[in-house]
Description:
Blueprint: E1 6-7, E2 12-14, E3 19-21, H1 27-34, H2 39-78, H3 84-96, H4 102-110
Antiparallel strand pairs: 1-2, 2-3
Helix pairs in contact: 2-3, 2-4, 3-4
Amino acid sequence: xxxxxxxxxxxxxxxxxxxxxxxxxxxxxxxxxxxxxxxxxxxxxxxxxxxxxxxxxxxxxxxxxxxxxxxxxxxxxxxxxxxxxxxxxxxxxxxxxxxxxxxxxxxxxxxxxxxxxxxxxxx
Length: 123
């Protein structure tokens, strides 16, 4: 792009479009180095693409977190767990705790309550 033309001991660089020193970068030098003409439109398209990718990643991360928070409650309700509502609340509470206790709530959703001694299992 810009080939150095001249280098001296005073750290002054001369390029085809700009002459500036390391100590002071004038606005003219910076604008002449970074003015790309038609490449500016390409950069704005890349910026828009980067924003779209960022938004998709954030939305998909939120969707996965919400799904994981709902999962123990959905499993407990499907299995007719006697404390299905408590399991569902536990799934959402672990969302705010950073999913630290989420595996315990998931196991709780699968654990059935043992039957009492006097009840018949077959009926």
